[in-house]
Amino acid sequence: MSPDSILATLCRAVADVRPDLDTAVLTPADSLRELGLDSMERAEVIMLAMSELRVRVPMTAFAGAADLGAIAAVLESRA
Q: CA–CA separation, 43 vs 59, rounded Å?
């Protein structure tokens, strides 16, 4: 699983949770919080991505992940 494919999975999850956002312009430096997602939406994005990627990671592992790149790195490290 490449970092690019993980990022694409995260973008699809963001689009599912917040269809009003233009996910075509998201970058690894984008923060879900700064994009306006609340804590429940951020958790849903991560859970959707884990489901699609078929990985299981404790939600606590994402506590320090401030942007999409950091979330992708956590997912990649557990894949």
A: 8
The reported pTM is 0.93
Buried b (16+ CB within 10 A) or exposed e, 21-54: bebeebebebbbeebebeeebbebbbebbbeebe
Q: What is the pLDDT of residues 13-68, one digit of tens each?
A: 999 999 999 999 999 999 999 999 999 999 999 999 999 999 999 999 999 999 99
Virtual torsion, Cα 78, 44, 32, 65, nearest 10 deg: -30
Q: Which residue has the tokens 């992708």?
A: 72
Q: How many Cβ atoms from other residues are within 10 Å of residue 75's Cβ?
A: 24
